[in-house]
Every structure is written in structure tokens, then in C-alpha cells.
Write a structure and sequence with these properties.
mainly alpha; about 5% strand; 4 strands; four-stranded mixed β-sheet; single chain
Length: about 375
């Protein structure tokens, strides 16, 4: 500890309990790296100091919302379930600050921007920067239950350390992210249309695959999400309100699911397009998002049929084989005509708003 921290502004004896909180809740998904334990905070620090590894972390909206609430001067709620979520979010912030991660909040802010005013999103972007600069001891003390709010003085002092936020740049990145979100939203809409049309899970999964093959295009993240959604072992509330008669509740659930897919896609893209000497952590307390994100970089040493192995986690062996065979054949058909696929992607992207309007209308009528 002394080698890494010279005159730290926190008690280094607090590191182990912070790591234990985070490890117990398991919110991290790590991009491929030489670090075996994604909760080895000293491993990250040594990698950065000794090998020049750049450390990046992306917070999902569930965690960032609580971080922003605390950095705005609000207290930890008294209700136990909510309080635990705030304590975990504080522990995550403490872990990332101690580990010297640079925190990427744009996706979460853009999710907020999609359902709020520009001024509100601009305010929350500023507060998220303030949160990054709050003394780590404040986050530690909240995570360990020593206090239930960040001191007003520390919030004000952090605010003075934060340079003014260039929101115009944030608006530009919003326009770059909203198109992938719309495409994910269209995938989720189609899955919901199929869901409402039949209770035959295997048939529904195959229908979705054929739709991608014949009318749309294949995408890894939505494919995994939908195969889990239709399975007997689906996670609860993957699409909140999917069976609700309340249209607003259903739309909110669909949009939220599309943002979950966008987090995974952007996190994966950040890793794949960044410098090889950079690690990316995805931080989420959403079970489905966490599980599906982990599958983006899974490598099997025993079989090339990675998709089949993934399907078998959620389906019986026979049903998994049926779906896998349909998927493999459909993908082969598409792969044999790359020009047609590229044209579908181009047309889909250019006309996505019209596609969404038409399918959304159908889904809301069922």
C-alpha cells in the first residue's frame, strides 16, 4: 500500500472492506485482460503504474443515478433495499477512485437526456463530474455506513475543482449514440411483438431468428438478449411491463431494455476500438445486463460452438440444439450474401424512425 499511496487522503485499511462490498455484489464486467480477478484493485493499480495500462469504467444508469443523488447533497434512503443500492454505488465510486479509473458517464447521461430536458441533462453531467472529484473518503464513509450523506463543503469544494463542462460536445456524442439505441429499440420491439403473439418459447426464438435473416439483420447483443428473454430461465423484468396493459409502462420498459443493450454495445465497442493497453470495466447492478455483457467476450477452450453452450445455460439441451441449428443456418444464408446484408443495414439505419413508428403502433395495439 505504501508503495502506491504516498500520503493518501483516506485510511488504506478501508480498501479491503470496500473491495469486499463490491466483490459480494459483483457489479463488474471486465473486458479481456491479463488481470484474472476483476476485483483485484491492487492489480489494476500495478498494471497502470508498471505497464502503462489505461483504466476506464462505464457506469450504468442505476449506479450513476444514485451517485448523482448523493453528489447533489441527498441522503441515503432509509428503506433497506434502496439503502443497499446507495451503499453499493458509493463502494463502486470508492473502488474506481482508489483504483485511478477514468469514469465514462456519457451513456448514462444520454439515457437521462432521452427522457428529460437538455438543461436537466446538462446539470446531471456537471454533477457527475463533481462526483468524480469528491474526496474518496466521503464515498468510503458512506459505503461503510459511517455517514449517510456527503458533506456540503466537500460538494462545493469539488464543484470548484471541476472545469466547466462543454455540453455541446456531449450533444454531439448524443447524436452518435442515439442511432444505435434506436436500432436496439427496434430489436426489442420485434421481440415484444413476437412475445405477445405466442407462448411457444422455442417457436418464438426461431421466429426472431428468421426475422433477422429475412427482414432485418443479425446483431450479437440483441440476439443473446432475446434468446434469454424467450427462454424458461429468463431473468425477471428484462422488459419491464411487457405484459402490462398500460401503454406508457410498456414503452418505458421497452426503452429501458434498449438502453441496456446500448450499454453493452458501447462498452464492447469502446474496448474493441481503443488502444490495446486499455481496460474497460462495465459497472452494473442489473443481473440481465451483467450476464449478457459477460457473454460478449466468452471464449470456450472445449468447443467452437460458443452460442450452443450459451443457449444450454437457459434452455434444455434439445431446445438449445433446435434454436442453434436454426440460427446457424440463417446466419450462413446471410453470410453468403454480404452485399444484401450491408444494404439491409444501410436501409435500416436510414429509415429507422419509420420502422419504429410502424412496429410500435402494432405492439401497442396487441
Amino acid at each position: 500500500m505504501e508503495f502506491i499511496y504516498t500520503n493518501p487522503n483516506f485510511d488504506v485499511n478501508d480498501i479491503d472492506p470496500i473491495v469486499e462490498i463490491v466483490r459480494h455484489n459483483d457489479p463488474f464486467v471486465l473486458s479481456p485482460s491479463t488481470i484474472d480477478d476483476r476485483y483485484d484493485i491492487m492489480g489494476y493499480i500495478h498494471a497502470a503504474q508498471n505497464s502503462g495500462v489505461e483504466l476506464r469504467a462505464m457506469l450504468d444508469n442505476n449506479i450513476l443515478t444514485r451517485v448523482i443523488s448523493l453528489a447533489s447533497g441527498n441522503s441515503v434512503p432509509k428503506e433497506e433495499h434502496q439503502a443497499n443500492a446507495y451503499l453499493l454505488s458509493s463502494a463502486v465510486m470508492a473502488f474506481l477512485i482508489i483504483g485511478k479509473f477514468e469514469i465514462e458517464q456519457r451513456i448514462s447521461i444520454h439515457e437521462k437526456r432521452s427522457s428529460s430536458s437538455r438543461s436537466q441533462a446538462e446539470r446531471e453531467l456537471h454533477i457527475s463530474r463533481v462526483a468524480d472529484n469528491i474526496c474518496v473518503k466521503e464515498w468510503i464513509d458512506i459505503a461503510l455506513g459511517r455517514k449517510n450523506e456527503i458533506s456540503r463543503d466537500e460538494i462545493d469544494n469539488s464543484g470548484t475543482r471541476v472545469a466547466s463542462v462543454n455540453y455541446e460536445n456531449a450533444e454531439k456524442s448524443f447524436s452518435q449514440i442515439i442511432t444505435p439505441w434506436k436500432i436496439n429499440y427496434y430489436f426489442v420491439l420485434k421481440a415484444t411483438e413476437i412475445w405477445k403473439s405466442s407462448s411457444d418459447n422455442v417457436d418464438n426464438a426461431c421466429k426472431f431468428i428468421h426475422w433477422m435473416e429475412r427482414e432485418w439483420f443479425f446483431a450479437a447483443v440483441p440476439s443473446v438478449f432475446v434468446m434469454v428473454l424467450f427462454s424458461p430461465k429468463r431473468y425477471s423484468r428484462m422488459i419491464k411491463g411487457i405484459d402490462s396493459p398500460a401503454k406508457e409502462k410498456l414503452i418505458n420498459g421497452l426503452q429501458n431494455a434498449a438502453w441496456d443493450l446500448t450499454y453493452i454495445r458501447m462498452w464492447s465497442n469502446f474496448y474493441q476500438t481503443s488502444d490495446l493497453n486499455r481496460l474497460w470495466l462495465l459497472c452494473t447492478n442489473d443481473t440481465a445486463l451483467h450476464s449478457i455483457a459477460k457473454k460478449q467476450f466468452e471464449v470456450s477452450e472445449q468447443s467452437n460452438n460458443i452460442l450452443l453452450e450459451q443457449l444450454q445455460e437457459y434452455w434444455s439441451a434439445s431446445d438449445a440444439q433446435i434454436i442453434f441449428d436454426v440460427y446457424e443456418q440463417a446466419l450462413a444464408n446471410v453470410t453468403n450474401d454480404k452485399d444484401k446484408r450491408q444494404q439491409k443495414v444501410k436501409e435500416g439505419t436510414e429509415s429507422i424512425d419509420n420502422f419504429i413508428t410502424d412496429l410500435e403502433t402494432k405492439v401497442l395495439k396487441t
